[in-house]
Amino acid sequence: MKYTVVVGEHTVQVDVQGDAVSVDGAPIQARLASVPRTPLRQLALDGRARTFAMLRAEDGWLVQVAGEVWSVSVVDERTQQLRELTGQGKRGTGGGVIKAPMPGLVLRVEVEPGMRVEPGAGVVVLEAMKMENEIKSPTGGVVRSVRVVAGQAVEKGVVLVEIIEEA
User: Fold this and answer.
1) Which of 85, 107, 125 is the last residue of a domain?
2) What is the pLDDT of residues 92-125, one digit of tens each?
């Protein structure tokens, strides 16, 4: 089965055929395992192991690795083709809202209105589960508004920052 995997602005094609896995056409050794009764996963890529937390989100997954939270979308080949046929497969080049991926306490706001941000730039640091999580912009653009302040408690899904596409 072929998948399109999007992490922020980075897209790769993953092909899984039984135990054989390739990323953008290059074969790799990969093994993914769940840790029972936890959101933790263990991934071994070409012999290098990494443990991370993976939570379901509105439009994909939230993946926490080494204190950083990434928004990840995984779409199988058939779904991707259907989206493209119906015009739903196009991703914007900028703009959108960045929401809290989990409840927590805002430790720092790293952007301000009018500031230009690149894809992957840190915008807010949120303390959740006794860990600092840097929330990154999935897209580039200009900060339209910042809806939170340091010290503010937020719930999952609360808008933290709005980004608009630069004209």
Assistant:
1) 85
2) 445 678 888 888 999 999 999 999 998 888 999 9
In a domain, 91, yes or no: no
Note the pLDDT of residue 6. 87
CA–CA gap between residue 151 and residue 74 (Å, rounded): 34
Q: Please give the C-alpha separations between residue 153 and each of 30, 89, 148, in angstroms, as whole numbers.
A: 38, 35, 9
Token pair, residue 121, equals 């730039």
Task: Specify the higher pLDDT residue, 161 or 95.
Answer: 161
Answer for the pair 75, 1: CB distance below 8 angstroms, yes or no: no
Q: Of 28, 56, 85, at which residue does a domain stop?
A: 85
Q: Do 106 and 148 sit in the same domain of this protein?
A: yes
Q: Which domain holds residue 49?
A: 2-85
Report the alpha-carbon distance of residue 66 to residue 131 in Å, rounded: 10
pLDDT tens-digit map of 3-22: 988 887 788 999 998 888 99
Q: What is the CATH number of the domain that holds 106?
A: 2.40.50.100
Task: Annotate 103-152 with DSSP letters as a single string.
Answer: SEEEEEE---TT-EE-TT-EEEEEEETTEEEEEE-SSBEEEEEE---TT-
- Cα–Cα nearest to 147, from 112, 104, 101, 95: 112
